[in-house]
Please model this.
Amino acid sequence: MTNTQQTIQKCPCSPKNDYQDCCAPFHLGQFAPTVALLMRSRYSAFVLGGLGEYLLNTWLSSQREAYTAQELDKPQNYIQLQVLKSKEEGDLGEVEFKAYYLDQGLLKILHEKSAFVRENGRWVYVNGQIFKTIPKTIASQDTCPCGSGKRFKQCHALKARL
Ligand SMILES: [Zn+2]
Ligand SMILES: [Zn+2]
Model:
Protein backbone atom coordinates (compact mmCIF):
# COMPACT_ATOMS: atom_id res chain seq x y z
CA MET A 1 0.00 0.00 0.00
CA THR A 2 1.92 3.02 -1.21
CA ASN A 3 -0.18 5.98 -0.20
CA THR A 4 0.22 9.21 -2.11
CA GLN A 5 -2.00 11.30 0.17
CA GLN A 6 1.02 12.28 2.23
CA THR A 7 -0.48 15.51 3.55
CA ILE A 8 -2.83 13.69 5.89
CA GLN A 9 -1.14 10.34 6.18
CA LYS A 10 -0.31 9.14 9.67
CA CYS A 11 3.06 7.55 10.13
CA PRO A 12 2.95 3.76 10.39
CA CYS A 13 5.39 3.89 13.33
CA SER A 14 3.02 5.98 15.48
CA PRO A 15 -0.62 7.00 15.08
CA LYS A 16 0.30 10.29 16.81
CA ASN A 17 2.70 11.45 14.10
CA ASP A 18 2.18 12.67 10.57
CA TYR A 19 4.25 10.67 8.14
CA GLN A 20 5.68 13.83 6.62
CA ASP A 21 7.15 15.02 9.92
CA CYS A 22 8.16 11.56 11.13
CA CYS A 23 9.71 8.90 8.93
CA ALA A 24 9.30 10.50 5.48
CA PRO A 25 12.50 12.64 5.65
CA PHE A 26 14.55 9.49 6.27
CA HIS A 27 12.86 7.66 3.41
CA LEU A 28 13.78 10.63 1.23
CA GLY A 29 17.47 10.38 2.08
CA GLN A 30 18.14 12.12 5.39
CA PHE A 31 20.28 10.00 7.75
CA ALA A 32 18.45 9.00 10.93
CA PRO A 33 20.34 10.61 13.84
CA THR A 34 19.52 7.89 16.39
CA VAL A 35 19.08 4.13 16.24
CA ALA A 36 15.52 4.45 17.56
CA LEU A 37 14.57 6.76 14.69
CA LEU A 38 16.28 4.48 12.20
CA MET A 39 14.43 1.47 13.56
CA ARG A 40 11.11 3.34 13.34
CA SER A 41 11.80 4.44 9.79
CA ARG A 42 12.67 0.90 8.75
CA TYR A 43 9.49 -0.40 10.35
CA SER A 44 7.49 2.25 8.46
CA ALA A 45 9.26 1.31 5.24
CA PHE A 46 8.28 -2.33 5.74
CA VAL A 47 4.64 -1.36 6.35
CA LEU A 48 4.34 1.12 3.49
CA GLY A 49 6.03 -1.09 0.93
CA GLY A 50 7.83 0.19 -2.13
CA LEU A 51 10.83 1.28 -0.05
CA GLY A 52 13.06 -1.73 -0.63
CA GLU A 53 15.87 0.53 -1.77
CA TYR A 54 15.74 2.40 1.53
CA LEU A 55 15.74 -0.84 3.51
CA LEU A 56 18.80 -2.05 1.61
CA ASN A 57 20.63 1.23 2.11
CA THR A 58 20.09 1.03 5.86
CA TRP A 59 21.37 -2.54 6.08
CA LEU A 60 24.97 -3.35 6.91
CA SER A 61 26.68 -3.26 3.51
CA SER A 62 28.18 -6.76 3.83
CA GLN A 63 24.69 -8.23 4.33
CA ARG A 64 22.88 -6.50 1.49
CA GLU A 65 23.52 -9.20 -1.09
CA ALA A 66 21.14 -11.52 0.75
CA TYR A 67 18.17 -9.41 -0.39
CA THR A 68 16.92 -7.51 -3.39
CA ALA A 69 15.07 -4.20 -3.25
CA GLN A 70 12.20 -5.91 -5.03
CA GLU A 71 11.79 -8.51 -2.32
CA LEU A 72 11.84 -5.78 0.32
CA ASP A 73 9.28 -3.67 -1.55
CA LYS A 74 6.49 -5.99 -0.49
CA PRO A 75 4.36 -4.31 2.21
CA GLN A 76 4.22 -6.06 5.59
CA ASN A 77 0.99 -6.10 7.55
CA TYR A 78 2.18 -4.86 10.93
CA ILE A 79 -0.46 -2.86 12.77
CA GLN A 80 1.46 -1.42 15.69
CA LEU A 81 4.99 -0.74 16.83
CA GLN A 82 6.19 -0.49 20.41
CA VAL A 83 9.77 0.57 20.99
CA LEU A 84 10.75 -0.85 24.36
CA LYS A 85 14.36 0.29 24.73
CA SER A 86 17.13 1.79 22.72
CA LYS A 87 20.73 2.56 23.50
CA GLU A 88 23.83 3.80 21.77
CA GLU A 89 27.45 3.43 22.77
CA GLY A 90 29.88 4.99 20.36
CA ASP A 91 29.24 3.42 16.97
CA LEU A 92 27.12 0.55 18.31
CA GLY A 93 23.42 0.68 18.98
CA GLU A 94 20.58 -1.53 20.07
CA VAL A 95 16.77 -1.27 19.87
CA GLU A 96 14.31 -3.65 21.43
CA PHE A 97 10.80 -3.52 20.00
CA LYS A 98 7.53 -5.34 19.50
CA ALA A 99 5.76 -5.23 16.15
CA TYR A 100 2.20 -6.53 16.17
CA TYR A 101 0.39 -8.18 13.29
CA LEU A 102 -2.71 -10.23 12.68
CA ASP A 103 -2.55 -13.72 11.33
CA GLN A 104 -5.62 -15.91 10.95
CA GLY A 105 -7.53 -14.16 13.70
CA LEU A 106 -4.62 -14.17 16.14
CA LEU A 107 -2.57 -11.25 17.31
CA LYS A 108 1.07 -12.16 16.79
CA ILE A 109 4.13 -10.31 17.94
CA LEU A 110 7.56 -9.93 16.45
CA HIS A 111 9.66 -9.22 19.56
CA GLU A 112 13.16 -8.40 18.48
CA LYS A 113 16.34 -6.87 19.79
CA SER A 114 18.06 -5.31 16.80
CA ALA A 115 21.73 -4.45 16.57
CA PHE A 116 22.92 -1.38 14.69
CA VAL A 117 26.30 -0.02 13.79
CA ARG A 118 27.45 3.33 12.42
CA GLU A 119 28.95 2.74 9.01
CA ASN A 120 30.45 5.69 7.11
CA GLY A 121 28.63 8.11 9.39
CA ARG A 122 25.25 6.44 8.97
CA TRP A 123 23.43 4.11 11.35
CA VAL A 124 22.62 0.80 9.67
CA TYR A 125 20.87 -2.38 10.76
CA VAL A 126 23.08 -5.40 11.47
CA ASN A 127 20.79 -8.18 12.68
CA GLY A 128 18.19 -9.08 15.24
CA GLN A 129 17.67 -11.48 18.09
CA ILE A 130 14.09 -12.76 18.11
CA PHE A 131 12.30 -13.56 21.36
CA LYS A 132 9.62 -16.20 21.59
CA THR A 133 6.09 -14.81 21.91
CA ILE A 134 2.67 -16.31 22.38
CA PRO A 135 -0.09 -15.39 19.90
CA LYS A 136 -3.23 -13.98 21.48
CA THR A 137 -6.83 -14.17 20.45
CA ILE A 138 -8.79 -10.94 20.18
CA ALA A 139 -12.51 -10.76 20.84
CA SER A 140 -14.52 -8.62 18.45
CA GLN A 141 -15.54 -6.23 21.23
CA ASP A 142 -11.96 -5.75 22.45
CA THR A 143 -10.11 -2.52 21.74
CA CYS A 144 -8.21 -2.91 18.49
CA PRO A 145 -4.51 -3.65 19.06
CA CYS A 146 -3.53 -1.05 16.44
CA GLY A 147 -4.06 1.75 18.95
CA SER A 148 -6.96 3.45 17.16
CA GLY A 149 -9.15 3.26 20.27
CA LYS A 150 -11.92 1.61 18.24
CA ARG A 151 -13.35 -1.79 18.90
CA PHE A 152 -11.59 -4.56 17.03
CA LYS A 153 -14.72 -5.48 15.05
CA GLN A 154 -15.01 -1.89 13.81
CA CYS A 155 -11.34 -1.58 12.94
CA HIS A 156 -8.81 -4.19 11.87
CA ALA A 157 -11.27 -7.07 11.93
CA LEU A 158 -12.78 -5.33 8.91
CA LYS A 159 -9.49 -4.39 7.28
CA ALA A 160 -7.58 -7.59 7.77
CA ARG A 161 -8.26 -10.82 6.01
CA LEU A 162 -8.72 -13.00 9.04
ZN1 LIG B 1 7.43 7.40 11.79
ZN1 LIG C 1 -7.24 -1.37 14.24
Q: What stands out?
A: The longest helix spans residues 35-48. The chain has a mean pLDDT of 92. Helices lie at 24-27, 35-48, 52-57, 69-73, 156-159.
